[in-house]
Write a structure and sequence with these properties.
By secondary structure, the chain is of the alpha/beta class. It has 13 helices and 24 strands. Keywords: Glycosidase, Hydrolase, Signal.
Length: 557
């Protein structure tokens, strides 16, 4: 006891806390569920960025890193305009009318977008949105010119209104689906997910919930006539922990089950999958960014609870159509300083910790979680590291993209993780990660000849502190010799942002600097690969992990 007191006096309480190891036990023989790759879904407001220089590069990277097809969700696929691009905007001009009011279809731009996806092995999550100018009940003003710092509601213009003619809308849906089948083949289009609109419970939809249900009936009926095996769903409402969003979601689900169909007059409407959104809520506290993962997880939890409460729907795939630390990808950190987390390792550690809890919540509610869309892509021809919520900036990958590269190395079954961790998934959902204790935990998987453990050291407060000392006890290996790769994301590894800052934050990097940044943006090893021996199928390792750092230990045999 005297030695303990003397130690505390000599080295201080902080050093004593540092000496306390987090014990993480992984049992590869105890399977708890599938390691579903629901992380392989991404999206953006701006569909035309896909075929721009950096858009093509990033799509190629997403496809190359993933062992399964990546799905991409985009807005504005039916919006009027000739290839116009702006933040939170895009256009395809797919539908216009002649002087007599007859429909004129032009698939040139939307084909260019989808061709870009498919050439890279990306599959569309195709969205029937937004309202073409010629069909809108209130078309003017139509194209917005929103910029960061402007009021958000400035984006809600003529494209957000119901159609003046539901039959013409249905004909547009039918014609587009028929065109897609003719161009890409029935089997390919059957593998896509098609949906109606985005966040219809707020300004994106200027109609009522009943008008949305009516539009859904016309959309689903037309799509199924064009391709009976098409997968159609909705309603892509905002976070269900908000009462009005939950009410909209439940009204829609009730309509699909027992409402009178506006087209057929029969009961119900086709529904192949269910969608909603989930967002966190960062803010500035005492001069630093403080995240709020709990807000996002409560959205997910409530959405799962609602779906699970419907016996006839609980088996349907759920796609969280946008799942992010906050709500506005195009709001940079200069106009929204709480978004300063986006360039560095806080975004990556948040992503690792939050996705692990999505697995846990899906297990708890016993729902069929199919996809989780990170509404994070790229913004073409914008300043380097402006602080948008994106995966790459001017072709330079950010640290967060490397978390998805880590997930891509995990496959097979999820296995049991235990120890003396300070947080359960329910605690993070209910209270987020606050106070003196960080969230130091793991997600682990096992496949036929490989295994993986992802470790993170996360806290809502973006404040520097001591490294985490982790004792990793692994058991259940079936091989005596393992080849170990240790990948790391921190200030020194897999982090182009820190390299860019050390260069002096150049606004126009040279070709040589760009090459260095591109290399720094890749997922890197903390140390050289090594061979280790197990003892009766067990292995003990010690890992030092910086705050907001993420490690992936990959074992092959």
């Amino acid at each position: 006891m005297k030695k303990f007191i003397l130690c505390c006096l000599l080295f201080g309480a902080t050093q004593f806390v540092f000496a306390q190891k987090t014990i993480i036990n992984v049992d590869f023989s105890k399977e708890i569920g599938e390691m579903r790759p629901f992380w392989a879904w991404f999206g953006a407001d701006e569909p035309n960025y896909a075929y721009m220089k950096d858009g093509k590069k990033l799509l190629s990277e997403l496809s190359a890193m993933s062992p399964v097809p990546v799905y991409f969700r985009a807005h504005n696929l039916l919006t009027s305009g000739h290839d116009t691009m702006n933040l939170k905007w895009g256009s395809t001009n797919i539908y216009t009318e002649d002087a007599q009011g007859n429909p004129v279809y032009d698939f040139t731009i939307v084909d260019k977008i989808f061709d870009t996806y498919l050439q890279r092995g990306i599959k569309p999550m195709a969205q029937f949105s937004f309202m073409p100018e010629a069909l809108s009940t209130n078309p003017q003003p139509y194209e917005h010119h929103w910029q960061p710092g402007m009021p958000y509601d400035k984006v809600y213009t003529g494209w957000a209104y119901p159609p003046k003619d539901y039959k013409k809308w249905a004909d547009l849906v039918y014609t587009w689906v028929k065109h897609a089948v003719a161009r890409y083949g029935k089997a390919e289009v059957e593998s896509w997910y098609w949906e109606l609109w985005n966040e219809p419970n707020i300004g994106y939809w200027k109609g009522t919930v009943e008008e949305y249900c009516k539009l859904y009936d016309y959309t689903a009926d037309a799509a199924k006539r064009a391709l009976p095996t098409i997968k159609i769903g909705g309603p892509e409402t905002t976070g269900p922990s908000w009462n009005k969003a939950a009410d909209f979601l439940k009204t829609f689900l009730n309509h699909c089950i027992s409402g009178k169909n506006y087209v057929t007059g029969k009961v119900g409407s086709p529904l192949d999958f269910i969608t909603f959104h989930a967002k966190g809520s960062p803010k500035i506290v005492d001069g630093h960014v403080q995240m709020n993962m709990g807000t996002q997880l409560r959205d997910i939890s409530e959405g799962f609870r609602i779906v699970a409460s419907y016996p006839t729907l609980k088996h349907l795939p759920i796609i969280i159509g946008e799942s992010d630390p906050e709500g506005c990808a195009a709001c940079g950190m200069k106009t929204n300083p709480q978004n300063a987390y986006r360039n560095g390792t806080m975004y990556s550690s948040y992503t690792a910790a939050s996705f692990a809890r999505k697995y846990a919540l899906a297990d708890y509610f016993k729902v069929n979680l199919k996809g989780v869309v990170s509404w994070s892509f790229e913004f073409e021809n914008q300043p380097y590291f402006y602080g948008f919520r994106d995966l790459a900036t001017n072709g330079i990958d950010k640290p967060v993209l490397n978390v998805f590269r880590m997930f891509a190395l995990m496959s097979g079954k999820r296995v049991a993780v235990s120890g003396n961790q300070k947080y359960t998934y329910a605690m993070v959902r209910d209270s987020s990660v606050r106070g003196k204790n960080a969230d130091i935990d793991a997600l682990a998987s096992k496949d036929l000849n490989s295994a993986a453990v992802m470790l993170w050291h996360y806290h809502d407060d973006d404040v520097r502190t001591e490294d985490a000392a982790i004792e990793l006890n692994l058991k259940g290996f079936t091989a005596k010799t393992l080849n170990v790769h240790h990948y790391r994301i921190d200030d020194e590894n897999s982090n182009a942002y820190e390299v860019w800052k050390k260069m002096g934050s150049p606004e126009n990097p040279s070709a040589e600097q760009i090459a260095i940044l591109e290399k720094a943006g890749q997922l890197t090893l903390l140390s050289s690969p090594s061979y280790v021996k197990t003892s009766n199928g067990s292995l003990k390792m010690n890992v030092q992990l910086p705050r907001q750092g993420v490690s992936l230990l990959k074992f092959d045999w």
